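Inputs:
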Amino acid sequence: NAGVTQTPKFQVLKTGQSMTLQCAQDMNHEYMSWYRQDPGMGLRLIHYSVGAGITDQGEVPNGYNVSRSTTEDFPLRLLSAAPSQTSVYFCASSYSIPGTETPYEQYFGPGTRLTVT
Amino acid sequence: EDQVTQSPEALRLQEGESSSLNCSYTVSGLRGLFWYRQDPGKGPEFLFTLYSAGEEKEKERLKATLTKKESFLHITAPKPEDSATYLCAVRGGSQGNLIFGKGTKLSVKP
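Outputs:
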């Protein structure tokens, strides 16, 4: 099992550019999520998905878009990059508690370090 | 509002010097408290889940405990390889998403 994989590892964008951060998992997890991690702050949830075709907003969704067409993949799109989106982005996945959409413990990818100039 | 506060922000220990990290939380209806370890430049690595007050879990030199208002991560006789940032999170809200604290950065000197 590769677990949760993320590409790219590093990216530099200019203000206004768009890009997609890729996330894939091979554990057949229903639940997937995107977080950003900034210095002095905890991990903050951007968007999450409880299964293919279902997504919802987290704490800080503005400026980001997601879709979930397969169980394995959960890409995060930056529509028009801004310096405030400079951060480290983590994707995570987990099984859901049977009969609910509540996730068990989440497993994280290695992260993408994004700089917007 | 659901909230997680970790203390101290940073902790420096000598090898073999036992100590504890604190995670206090306010959440409506706790549905799990999670501890993670994060090494520099890497993603968080899952350590423990605790569900109810009085529960304890152990792994090597680490033991996590839970009360109704806080959790402790006890580190017994730490080694330099235990140096990392330790994150605490609670599951709250109607969707059960994780709410993270800011972490405690632990440094263990030989």
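Remarks. The mean pLDDT of chain B is 94. Chain B touches chain A at residues 4, 31-32, 34, 36, 41-46, 49, 87, 89, 91, 95-103 (CB under 8 Å).
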